[in-house]
Amino acid sequence: MYGKAFAPEYQGALTTLSVNSSLTDVLAQGLARLGEAQRSGTREDAARALLAVAEAHRRLGNVAEADRAWKTSYRTARSVGALGAMAWALWSGGTLARQRGALNLAYRLLAHAADLGERGNDVVARGYSLAGMAETGRIQGDYKTVAALHEKLLAEARRRGEARHTVWALEGIAQIHRNTGSYDTALAMFGEAAEIAAKADDRRGHAWALRGMADVLSIRDGATGQALSLLSEAEATCREMKLSSALAYNHKMRGNVLYRAARYDEARAVYQQALAEFEAMSEPRGTALSRLGLVKSLAHLGRDRSATVADLTELRSTFDRIGLRHARDMTDQALTEFHPTPPRPTAAPQHPAPREVAVR
Questions:
Q1: Which of the four pLDDT bands, split at 50, 70 and 90, describes residue 5?
Q2: Quick one: which of 1, 35, 99, 267 has the most CB atoms within 10 Å?
Q3: Is 181 exposed, middle or buried (0-12, 13-18, 19+ CB in 10 A)?
Q4: What is the distance in angstroms between the CA of the first residue and the CA of the last residue of the chain?
Q5: Which of the 8 DSSP states describes residue 340?
Q6: Is 36 exposed, middle or buried (0-12, 13-18, 19+ CB in 10 A)?
Q7: Which CATH class is domain 9-138?
Q8: What's the CA dihedral at 280, 285, 286, 292 to 10 degrees?
Q9: Residues of the chain with pLDDT > 70: what percent?
């Protein structure tokens, strides 16, 4: 039913690159192709090479370099009216914005990318951009709004036999089920995603699916050993492919599993490791989530209660600012556990209406 996974973000002369290509190889080949395109004056080829450069930098955690590359890709594509290449550049920029915790900006960039993909008859760019919008809403906890879009994109991906996109959609829907307490459904969907990814040789998607399975097995069954084993398998892939962000999230999840098992000292050490990794990438969402786990672990290890409450209150404001409703709710639970006075309620995040994005 599904063919081998492919990486549509590697375009032009870079289509021979695999979804599993080492990111250092992707970066080297992207820069080489960029130099060739600049020398020959083929600006659309340059824009598409810059897309691969931007994505390699983003996944390696090189935020400033990724930001420069996607913007240059967009401007280069715009100079020759290449709508499809413009869409892909905005998709990369929107994905980077989400990774950095700028969720409203991510939503706007991805909305414009979807529009350009449709106008430029690039079905895959449009689909990836809509998927990015759905993921942004899911991260914010806006499940009611994005659940239907997730399901629609899953159906489209299944119909076209696109393994990588099917895996992504399954993982997104599974995460919604996990966060709303439907653990059996979540585990089944993460398991299906892992199976499809393995058969399609999508190692990145497989690593994320294993992480999801570990999370559910830990929280539903208390299966700490099995969860840690799955995370170790996923970590090996992340290290081999140099997936810096995925590796940091893997470590944060390992901290979660250890915390649930009341192994607080081990959890503290792993949360500190994840925190350092996220800070090195200037990744505020992962930074805040790792801090939350670290603060809770330290509280159980005897840290002063007032310091714990002060940190949790600060983190709650951070999650509100970023727009992470689920994380804010977890912080409320921690405040209730460590402090008797509940925080005041906050309005749910609202997606802004897309407006023109200026890339200078």
A1: confident
A2: 267
A3: exposed
A4: 43
A5: S
A6: middle
A7: mainly alpha
A8: 120
A9: 93
CA 335 to chain centre: 27
Distance (Å, rounded) from C-alpha 187 to C-alpha 185? 5
| pLDDT digits 0-9 by tens, 99-130 | 888 899 999 999 999 999 999 999 889 988 99
State the average pLDDT over residues 233-249: 93
What backbone torsions phi and psi does residue 241 show, to the nearest 5 degrees? -90, 0
Q: Establish how many alpha carbons lie within 13 A of residue 281's alpha carbon, considering only the half-sphere containing its beta carbon.
A: 29
Band the pLDDT of 4: cuts 50, 70, 90: confident
Please check the confidence at residue 354 and state whether its pLDDT lies above 50: no
Residue located via tokens 């080489």: 32
pLDDT tens-place string over residues 258-301 = 999 999 999 999 999 999 999 998 888 999 999 999 999 999 99
Amino acid sitting at position 340:
P
CATH level 3 topology of 141-222: 1.25.40
> Distance between CA 134 and CA 212 in Å, rounded?
18
Task: Tell whether domain 243-346 is in CATH 1.20.1740.10.
Answer: no
Rounded Cα gap, residues 94 and 115, in angstroms? 13
CA gap 125, 86 in Å, rounded: 10
Cα dihedral 137, 120, 52, 152 sign:
positive
**H helical segments located in the chain:** 23-40, 43-60, 63-79, 83-99, 103-119, 123-140, 143-160, 163-179, 183-199, 203-216, 224-241, 244-260, 264-280, 284-300, 305-322, 325-338
Residue 19 is predicted with a pLDDT of 86
Residues ≥6 apart with Cβ < 8 Å to 136 = 94, 98, 103, 106, 107, 110
Comma-separated ranges of CATH 1.25.40.10 domains in the chain: 9-138, 141-222, 243-346
